[in-house]
Amino acid sequence: MFYTPTVGGGLRELRDELKLLVNRVNSCIDQHIHRSKEARCGPPANLVELLVIDEAERLSATALEYVRDCFDRTDIGLLLIGMPGIEKRMARYPQLYSRVGFAHHYRPLQDDELSFVLTRHWRQFGLTLDDADFTDNQAITAIARITGGNFRLLHRLFVQIERVLRINDLTVITNDVVDAARSTLVIGAT
Questions:
Q1: Fewer CB in a 10 Å sphere around the end CB: N or C, the chain?
Q2: Where are the domains of the chain?
Q3: Helix or strand holding residue 3 (H, E)
């Protein structure tokens, strides 16, 4: 199950949203498992195995304690994703930090990795990436310069590239398309 807390969200919101999400996911899994059988009575068993919380730095100390308590009381695994430095913040909460298995720092995508990811993004638009093509090469260079190989920023940029292509009824990712997509993002100077 994947969850992103809202900015400034409180404990009540977190509790309500997680409860709702767990119930929805359990129901979907239960329906899939029992699709050929007659309808079951009562609530489905807890079938969620992993809770992934993105942008975990948004969680307050109380919310982190609540998440830790849920982790302790259930068989659900917990994965917290956050900005660099989140592990230092977690270290201030010994009850939570003592349960941390490891902290993994994602390094920027290198040339081959970036090429692989870009090829997949091009394919999603029904295009073929050809690094020998001047237009594609310019776009690749601009994307590499803007994102610095940051996977999350790369995803955000491609959401905007798709938007620019759709609005302008374009079928080619050019340097201008990349620059227009970049201008809609709030990121540092590149």
A1: C
A2: 2-97, 111-183
A3: strand 2-3
CB-based contact 39:88 (threshold 8 Å): no
Residues 6+ apart with CB under 8 A from 70: 18, 51, 76, 78
Q: Is 30 helix (H, G, I), strand (E, B) or coil?
A: helix
Q: What is the DSSP letter of 2?
A: E
What is the C-alpha separation between 142 and 138, in angstroms, rounded? 6
pLDDT, tens digit, for every residue of 25-79?
Answer: 988 888 888 776 665 666 667 888 899 998 888 988 889 889 888 888 888 888 8
Q: Residue for token digits 């807890």?
A: 46
| Three-state SS sequence of 34-80 | CCCCCCCCCCCCCCCCEEEECCHHHCCHHHHHHHHHHHHHCCCEEEE
How many helical (H) and strand (E) elements, i.e. helices and strands, does the chain have? 8, 3
CB 14: neighbour CB atoms within 10 A?
23
DSSP secondary structure letter of residue 172: S
139-182 confidence digits (pLDDT tens): 999 999 999 998 889 999 999 999 999 999 999 999 999 999 99
**Longest CA span, the chain:** 62
Per-residue pLDDT reduced to its tens digit, 98-151? 777 777 777 899 989 999 999 999 999 999 999 899 999 999 999 999 999 988
